[in-house]
């Protein structure tokens, strides 16, 4: 939530020094930011909801396949859908200038959902990239996600449980507080600085640095393998792998940089000028909304760029179109052609060790 992290503007609770001893000359338009945030959340809600519902709808029938990449893709979309469904609360909160009108229960629940997605989405993206690399480099070895149903669901449950545990470390300090207006805040009663620094470093390591290291390293190795493969027809397939890494970094790096400088300001309130501090806290909600763009980017990158997914989408849609008389015969022929095309695409990616024209797309591997 946008106002989950409080800054000591009205009074520095850490050292008792009023913030106004510093001179602030920075004039920032909060109304313009409010409009931009509302439009950003509306875009993410509408586009992200449609994209992720389509991804789950098309891929859910194949969730029991041996393809670990596909299994991770479904979990990423489910994670993104979780945060998308609570975006209307974000939108209304922004519109009312951080006033929270939905009670203590929804205050804690919406924050918990947001932070669980914060971790789980990155974890499953990292595991998907690792699974992708292992399937290409060691096609004869076992999958990182076990083929067996029970073992696979145990691994999946472990990832969700770790995400929930890390989210609860933060959520225990979230509550509905009332000053002039009710607000949903994240503010521990004691040891604010120590707690904030600890939780922020956990976020930095587990949500960004760790997954980014796995994603970037594996994608670089995949790109090198693609460059030497004889059946890769264009450089687009190689560069697409690097786009996966670039999008992840672009979504999350601004957020973690701002948070990092906020930690420094808490540890040493006299290091930055007042204008710098005002700019940091003004931009926090902006970079937070930018980070949520991963809910829109992930389905497009990992699904809609895949020939296999597009063919399965067409095939699924055709199966739900009612057909009568001659229309039924034409539709059946079209459906048969679509299924044949999908099977061809799937068979082209069926060998995890083989690099085909579209195999640099994550969802084409073993699909």
UniProtKB/TrEMBL annotation:
Superkingdom of this protein's organism: Eukaryota
Ranges annotated as spanning the membrane: 38-57, 69-91, 111-130, 151-169, 195-222, 243-264, 284-305
Principal cellular location given in the protein's record: membrane
GO biological process, one term: negative regulation of hematopoietic stem cell differentiation
Region (Disordered): 331-367
Keywords: Cell membrane, G-protein coupled receptor, Membrane, Receptor, Transducer, Transmembrane, Transmembrane helix
Record field: compositional bias (Polar residues): 356-367
UniProt key word rRNA processing: no
Pfam families assigned: 7tm_1
Gene Ontology CC annotations of this record: plasma membrane
SUPFAM superfamilies per UniProt: Family A G protein-coupled receptor-like
Subcellular location: Cell membrane
Keyword Transmembrane annotated: yes
Homology family: Belongs to the G-protein coupled receptor 1 family.
PANTHER family per record: G-PROTEIN COUPLED RECEPTOR 182 (PTHR24226:SF0), G-PROTEIN COUPLED RECEPTOR 182 AND ESTROGEN RECEPTOR 1 (PTHR24226)
Name this protein carries in UniProt: G protein-coupled receptor 182
């Amino acid at each position: 939530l946008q106002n989950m992290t409080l800054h000591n503007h009205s009074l520095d609770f850490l050292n008792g020094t009023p913030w106004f001893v510093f001179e602030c000359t920075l004039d920032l338009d909060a109304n313009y930011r409010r409009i931009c945030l509302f439009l950003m959340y509306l875009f993410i809600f509408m586009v992200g909801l449609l994209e992720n519902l389509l991804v789950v709808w098309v891929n859910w029938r194949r969730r029991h396949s041996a393809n670990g990449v596909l299994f991770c893709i479904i979990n990423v979309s489910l994670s993104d859908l979780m945060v998308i469904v609570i975006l209307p609360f974000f939108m209304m909160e922004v519109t009312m200038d951080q006033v929270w009108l939905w009670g203590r229960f929804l205050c804690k629940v919406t924050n918990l959902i947001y932070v669980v997605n914060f971790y789980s989405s990155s974890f499953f993206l990292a595991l998907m990239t690792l699974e992708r690399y292992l399937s290409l480099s060691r096609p004869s070895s076992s999958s990182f996600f076990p083929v067996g149903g029970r073992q696979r669901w145990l691994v999946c449950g472990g990832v969700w449980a770790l995400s929930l545990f890390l989210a609860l470390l933060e959520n225990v300090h979230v509550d509905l507080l009332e000053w002039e207006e009710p607000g949903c805040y994240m503010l521990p009663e004691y040891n604010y600085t120590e707690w904030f620094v600890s939780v922020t470093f956990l976020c930095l390591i587990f949500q960004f640095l760790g997954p980014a290291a796995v994603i970037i390293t594996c994608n670089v190795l995949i790109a090198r393998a693609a460059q030497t493969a004889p059946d890769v027809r264009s450089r687009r397939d190689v560069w697409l792998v690097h786009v996966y890494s670039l999008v992840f970094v672009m979504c999350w790096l601004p957020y973690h940089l701002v948070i990092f400088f906020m930690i420094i300001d808490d540890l040493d309130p006299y290091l930055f000028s007042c204008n710098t501090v005002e700019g940091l806290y003004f931009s926090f909600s902006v970079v937070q909304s930018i980070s949520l763009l991963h809910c829109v980017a992930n389905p497009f990158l990992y699904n809609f760029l895949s020939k296999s997914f597009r063919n399965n989408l067409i095939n699924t849609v055709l199966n739900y179109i009612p057909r009568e008389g001659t229309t039924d015969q034409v539709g059946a022929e079209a459906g048969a052609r679509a299924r044949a095309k999908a099977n061809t695409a799937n068979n082209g990616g069926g060998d995890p060790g083989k690099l085909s024209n579209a195999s640099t797309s994550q969802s084409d591997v073993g699909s």
